[in-house]
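Q: Sequence in, structure out?
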Amino acid sequence: MRRSYDDLVHEASTVSVDGWDFSWLDGRATEERPSWGYSRLLAGRMAAARAALDLQTGGGEVLAGVPALPPLAVATESWPPNLRLAASRLRPRGARVVAAADDGPRLPFADGRFDLVTSRHPVHTQWAEIARVLRPGGSFFSQQVGPRTAGELAEWFLGPYDGWTREPARAREEAEAAGLEVVDLRSERPRMEFGDIGAVVYFLRKVIWIVPGFSPERYADRLRALHDRIEAEGPFVAHSARFLIEARNP
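A: Exactly. Output:
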């Protein structure tokens, strides 16, 4: 039996969106994963590290999934609800969790403290600070959100949309300007599908930069129209953008 528009929107509007865990969408929305397998590659680098820093860790979901953490493992996060989630996941693994702004002028760590710095989907990449806290020969390893992620979804609500201008080539330029040597850079556009309007509402509440200022009340007309389209035609298809970058401190 199909659920009503009001039921789907109410459910998705009231469920918690804390953390960076998207399991609530299981069976309701899908997103292909990039072919390089970030979690697998991250696990290998963590196993070889002595001191690692994970920036903007969210709720600690990705780092907590690493089989073996280095002797010194530290994670930063800026949002208080995520800080609590990250601490509950990572402290039992022996990792420290530190409050730090995503775009602050300085990370709260000494120069050359880490041989590995990582970040999955950072809001802002502090290239100069990353270079400062890396030891000579240390590496920054990150999967980032590229341009026009979920652009089709944004355009449904906002009209013509330029999307984020976070281009892989710009990331290379900024890394090199900070004195780092880029040793790997690749990008892909995985497919996304939204199977019901509740999945759309939840996604836009959680990934707040796709439709800034989103609320079901503000965009009720467009949500209703999208619900009708999904009911008539099947899942709404969009595409994410991801790029992998690895840069070394010479």
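Strands lie at 29-31, 51-54, 72-77, 96-99, 114-120, 134-145, 181-188, 191-194, 236-239, 242-248.
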